[in-house]
Amino acid sequence: MLKFWNRDNTGRSTTSPQSSALKPQLSLFAGIGERDVVALYNAATIKQLNASATLYRENDLADAVFVVLTGLIRTRQQVNARQLEGQLYGEGDWIAGADFDHPAYRVDAASAAEPSTVMVIKKATLIALDEPLKSYVYGKIQAASVQALSNRNKQLLSLVGESEQLKKELIRVRSRGKTDFVKSDAIRGVINKIPKLPVSTVNIVNKLHYEEVSTLEMVELVRSDPALTGLLLKTINSSYYNFRQKIADVNHAVGLFGFDSVYQIIMAESIRQSLPDTPEFKQVYQHSLQVSHIAFAVSQASQVGRPSELSTLGLVHEIGHIVLELMKKQNPKLAGLIDLIDSAEVAAELLGTWNLPDRICSSIRYQHHPEYSQPATLPGDVRDNTAILYIAHLCYELLHKRPQQELPTLFLHDYLAVLNWQRLSLREVLNSQIIPALQKRADVLPQELVAVLPG
Fold it and tell me: Could you tell me the pTM of the whole model?
């Protein structure tokens, strides 16, 4: 009778039972004879594991393969905060994942699902074997690796399917009944009480939206309305800009600030004067003013969209919150329910009553979609605007020191790709594209925004 030896968990060589005791395990090594099985046992280490005991941990050096002799071994992988169940290996299964020439680190962990016995094969084990047996082991390792890859692909396909179902359900839940209450008399009553933008301001927005307007035409549009001219000059000559020399005419203003900046000043002041002078509005207005300038910079830097249109979107994107705040003041007992109303839908309704272009209204309506859906789910005519407004909002949050892990970035890469920035991270976009563009226009930026710019 043959005898064989193996090393126990302490590394000591121990005499193994006679080959008659080995008979039940010979079937685990189909393709080789009893002598080769004994040789493999002699070279390898046999590890006994109690239930739940660890075979290897994530980030352990992957310098061994394993053969399950008895019991069950389960693998698991941690992805972010979620633990994914891997494979269950039973008697005769080989657990691969090691490269003896270039050992890497484990991306998963393995433990015993019940009391188990495992053969541990390291590089030194293989060196001790003769060539035919060595070829047999390499063949089993290759077959186990192929099977593991196939199992991972099946798991990946399952996760992709699960992800798609979750995305569809999220869109369905977020979209369900969004417009029903927005069109109710309660909302309409508040919207109708909010003063409309000056006609001349609306005319400028529509001209910029539907036509190419020259600097001369812009000057004439402002001059044609004394109230608009007064608004512009009063704003520019205020302590906000603190110019030493008084600016007395529109030509001087456009020459000093540029076409786009004059447009932003007119829009911002028109909106400020149309909405209630409350602490809530002042907070929303300051936030929106900064996002407006960032959206303008994103559009310019990416060469996607129209910068003047994006500055308008930034100014009005939070205007729905003002309507909802007014509703809560009128109906304080319903404040909890009012908070559930989609402010983007409310904003789009309000802007429609101001006779702003449909694309501006639609872009505002879809502004929250990047938080829970990919660009392909958006109408094509608003996709660029929605992507820019989303990225601008994220940049605003980073500039104000909010940690990126707290931001809604599930589909960030997809929206960066819309702007041809798929090779950049959000932080790289901010540092290399947006901050330099803002710094070039520092003279016309809100002081609160200048304060958070580096340097």
Answer: 0.67
